[in-house]
């Protein structure tokens, strides 16, 4: 007679629920970061919504997939946790690499490592990272006239002549 060993299995429902939880956590974390960027004016609301949706989707897929893999391998306890972390990290990295375009640069450093020391590249990259400057308010012509008139009047009053 053979002894039956019970191996825990993860159902599709459990993997789906883990994916939903991962999507929720990833989306909330991205929403917090994107909200700050929207307030700072570095991204638009539409870009923030896109970032949140992308992050929630990739995190959810990575988490659900990792739970399914760990469960199908019959991992339990610490081995299960370690397996989920490893698989989810690799899956998230792969999904992010596929969905986020590679940044192109005007610098030849992107092509040749020897060109990294060019100061122009650093200046251009730094300029690209800065927030777009908001135009200053221009003083109106009336405001400039009032200031000039006030200054002239102050000078005449100070001299004692009217």
Automatic annotation (TrEMBL):
**Residues covered by region (Disordered):** 126-162
This protein's source sits in the domain of life called Bacteria
Q: Which UniProt keywords apply?
A: Membrane, Transmembrane, Transmembrane helix
The record ties this protein, via Pfam families, to: MamC (PF26373)
Give me the segments passing through the membrane: 64-88
What is the recorded name of this protein?
Transmembrane protein
Phylogenetic lineage: Bacteria, Pseudomonadati, Thermodesulfobacteriota, Desulfovibrionia, Desulfovibrionales
